[in-house]
Amino acid sequence: MTAVASSNRASRARIFLRHETILAAMLVVALFGLGLFNDRFLTIDNLLNQGRLMTEIGLIALPMTFVIVTGGIDVSVGAIVGLCAIVLGYSWKNLGFPLPLAIVFTLVVGAAAGLANGLVITRIKVPPIITTIATLTLFRGLAEGISQAHSVRGYPDWFYFLGQGDVFGVPTQLLVLFLAIIVFGVALDRTTFGRTLYAIGSNETAARFSALPVERVKLAAYTLSGLMASLSALVLVSRVTTTRSDMGMGYELDAIAAVVLGGTSIFGGSGTIWGTVIGAVMIQLLKNGLALTGVKGDATIMVIGVVLIASVLIASSLQRRRV
Amino acid sequence: MSATQDAPTPLIEVRAIEKTFPGVRALSAVSFDVRAGEAHALIGENGAGKSTLIKIMSGVFGPDSGSILVEGRETRLATPDDARRAGIATIYQELLLFPELSVAENIFLGHAPRARGGWIDWRTMRAKAQELLASLDIDDLAADETVGALSVGNRQRVEILRALSHDARVVIMDEPTAALTEADVTRLFDIVRRLKARGVAIIYISHRLDETFAIADRVTVLRDGAYVGTRLTRETNSGELVQMMVGRRIDNMFPKTEAPIGEPVLETRDLVRRPLTKSISVTVRAGEIVGLAGLVGSGRSELAQTLFGVWPAESGEIRLMGEAVTIRSPADARARGIAYVPEDRGSQGLVRPMSVLHNLSLAALTSLSHSGFIDRGAELRLAEQAVGRFGVKTRSLDELAGRLSGGNQQKIVLGKWLANQPKLLILDEPTRGIDVGAKAEIHRFMGELARAGVAILMISSELPEVLGMSDRVLVMREGRVVAEFDRAAATSQAVGAAMMGDLGATEQAA
Amino acid sequence: MSTIALSGASSARAPFWRRLSSQEMLLAVAIVGLALVVGLVNPRFLSANNLADILLGNAYIAVAAIGMSMVIITGNIDISVGALIGVLATVSGSLAVAGAPIAVTWLAPLVFGMLVMGLQGAIVAYVGIPAIVVTLGMLSILRGGLISVTGGKWITDLPDAFHLADIEIFGFIPMPVAIMVVATILAAVWMRWWPLGRAIYATGGNPEAARLSGVSPRRTLVLVFVLHGFFAGVAALLFATQLRVIQSTTPSGLEFTIITASVVGGVSILGGVGTVVGSTLAAILIAEITSALVFINISPFWTHALQGALILATVIADIERRRRRLAGAIR
């Protein structure tokens, strides 16, 4: 029995590998393809710099994986980034908070925003799409209202370490992202929390009947989503040295695209953090590669839209064939 | 059968219908007919094949072999539309209405009267709806009301009117009284009589015998997908019908072994959770198997889910091992040593897209983890143990649970809960829809568990199972325990009568 | 028989008004009430000029909300419409500048809108991908495509004849208002008195039952998206022709303003309920609120926050109302 089981485990691991191998292979092809087009692309400097740029989306895509694995979605994350950026600037400049306190306050606000989403979704049972569309408007509106279109600049130098500094040559925020990837990856793969996320996405009723804390885990997923969005906002403000209310606009799209591209089913129940990471890397390289080959920034948004729809279409047609 | 002699051509007749689903023979050699102006009851236990038969007659799916004759002509009913054209209308248990549309619109959806140019002719539609309402003397329902605001009884009337608007000559009613109040049942019977008088044929699915006698002219019994017999209601009695439904399988199938019965594990006093748990007081002892019989909708699963914390009790007392406890969630219940194998395996018991391994560990994650991290070695050992102990047939632990047969799925659900070593095991329809071999195995496990001192509360709609397995039998009706029998006194007649609401039996027991 | 016909006739108008009387009457009262209150604080709010500005500047939102309402009634959502309106306006304007016949410049956005939305509807209906994902992807395709094609440049030097919004019917009814009113009435009538229109409600209310009643939920869904594309085209025309230039971007969050109008207008996000009369009234109310903020000295930067709060409150109220009714029906 054991022997049979373990050999089958191996074979399934291979299938799993195959899914991620395909992604990784595509990544390699894309890397070299883009490298051929442009000799500035495949340089350590460029790649590290791309890591810097990708962190803000990556930090959001990690909890987005959790949310989508439960069968939900969170389109308000971009707006939370904007709100948190404003909260940071406003509490520091206008309320006179010391910057460290303002940072903590920003993280609290982000978590609270996510918690609010989670409460509306789990307590009042408003569908996640609708809830987060509504709060998207609300959070972005709060950012606009609080900031009154004023931007905040002139943060102390130490603050820029997060977004512009490096540790032994590696961008600071990339290290933060690495750490987050490990934490989120282990949480999804190895903990009861992660297992509960999968169970909820596959069959919420059965999860409840298995005595799993369904509501609490969903609440935690949306709260994490808000918290990581606020962390992303800190990194972003630190990198671009200014605070504006339209920050993070459209981040939800990149994050969702990364998750879906990474093999997480939009219907919930399956997906991995590693897939999301590859998805996020691919999107960033795609953007960068296109930019280097002379495609303007706005056209890359278009490409991401195509990638998102195409990957969902392909995933759903593959799934159909398997059944 | 004397009933079929010198009779006019039936409106609809099925001959030698066979239907097999993957792994299950749903119907074999079933023949059945209904004539104009007749109400023909179709009865049998859950899983007897009633629903499959009516779905074949209403074109939801086709039979593997056999023929369907409409007014003597062989007819193919490949789609619900074919059935509708043949004059057959079906009123399902879950009413297929549009809550936001008006009564008239619901009646005429899909065939609304048109004015010139294709516009919906609201005036004619309303008039016709009023006409239909008037024809059945329904005066508390207006054509303009929104269906969502109606009572269940009135919604059902709308469905019946919809059938009539199609000029249906055969109306199939699938357990129409399951959710109705007494007054609504009376009105339904009145409507059925009017329809009969108009020459409409009624096929009436039920498992309430009293209704069958009240409304049907003939009654056909199915058991395990096979045709058992047809009787004229005036020439039969409930004893004969129960015997036909139950058969004679009681003695040879259920290996309940004697187990020493110990102290009470579960005691409840006046447990209330509206609407379907009304003041329940039960006791289950260590080593004892208590069977909970009752019709669908009598409140058995609701009681189980109240004990398990899915719908926490509103008042009353639960004692476990003599200690008063409060159970607010399934997690509370689990912590107290309660396990619940739910009724609906596919939607409540199993996470089908998850592996066998992960399903088996799902309810035991807390004990398998250290500060939140799952001990994968322990998880694997637990799953291997369970697979070995219950003889789960699976290619590997990584096989998706949904791909296994029903019996193996049920073993997984059982195994998942036994991993917690519960003191009280609540089994809700533990052997529904699984093959005979797996059924016997599950019964054997139940016996073993009882001997190991587990208290077992078993809900089952299969009377033979209840009678064969239980040390004691409780009968529920309308949210209350109405009768209690010990093993010796629990006969199919007595328990069946108590389930159906035969007062004599209830008094006897009390 | 005659009495039946009579009773049928007497109640013929009742349900329509009764249904209107709930959300729609509330909105109408709110519109008038708000105007009076703000007018008291600042009489200039009630000037003919300002009232006309509110209607003229926002008629396109009401028109787009008609299609959005249909989409939401089927239980779906579309967040690409804001970007689509921008693209369609640019297409139309570019054609006009290039010297295409005016009829072509007016027809092109309608046709193109129907194509894009029809495609999305087909993916949602036949591939089974959630509308949120499809339209999210389309949103970025359209927005990215627009900016990279126009390079952010505004379209100017539009021919005078192009300006549909300048036309006044009978010399005094401005075209945008006329179109808003006529489109709302036509759509409302169609959705109520035409079998296909009713199919939208059936699809959203109970797709399984709709299928068993002979309505194809998939075809209905595609049709609804095509119609939504048509109204987006009309909205784009009004947007493109209201100023002398066409900006390469639409107001930020336009899609959410449109969704807000639908939901506040009484369209249930759970599908099956709502009217376009409500969504048009709600669009007017939202425009009025935005304008009112200025007149009572509140920064217009709070508009979106207010909108978000409004939509959240409406949605929560809708869900609570349904739950209560469901509980009532069971009891």
Largest interface: A-C, 52 and 47 residues
**SS-derived structural category of chain A:** mainly alpha
What is the count of β-strands of chain A?
Answer: 2
- Kindly estimate the percentage of residues of chain A that lie in beta strands according to DSSP: under 5%
Q: What is the total tally of β strands of chain B?
A: 23
Count, helices of chain B: 20
Q: Major β-sheet of chain A, in short? A: 2 strands, antiparallel
Which spans of chain B of ≥5 residues are poorly predicted at pLDDT below 50? 1-5, 503-510
Mean pLDDT of chain A comes to: 87
Can you tell me about this structure?
- The complex is a heterotrimer of chains A (323), B (510) and C (331).
- In chain A, 76% of the residues lie in helices and 1% in strands.
- Chain A is mainly α and 323 residues long.
- Chain A has a single domain, classed as ABC transporter involved in vitamin B12 uptake, BtuC.
- In chain A, strands 1-2 form a two-stranded antiparallel ribbon.
- In chain A, helix 2 packs antiparallel against helix 10, helix 2 crosses helix 12 and helix 8 crosses helix 10.
- The N terminus of chain A is likely disordered.
- With 510 residues, chain B is of the alpha/beta class.
- The N terminus and C terminus of chain B are likely disordered.
- In chain B, strand 1 and strand 2 form a beta hairpin.
- In chain B, 53% of the residues are buried.
- Chain C is mostly helical and 331 residues long.
- Chain C has a single domain, classed as ABC transporter involved in vitamin B12 uptake, BtuC, CATH 1.10.3470.
- A two-stranded antiparallel ribbon of chain C has the order 1-2.
- The longest helix of chain C has 28 residues.
- Classes of the chains: A mainly alpha (323), B alpha/beta (510), C mainly alpha (331).
- Chains A and C meet through helix 5, helix 11 and helix 13 of A and helix 7, helix 12 and helix 14 of C.
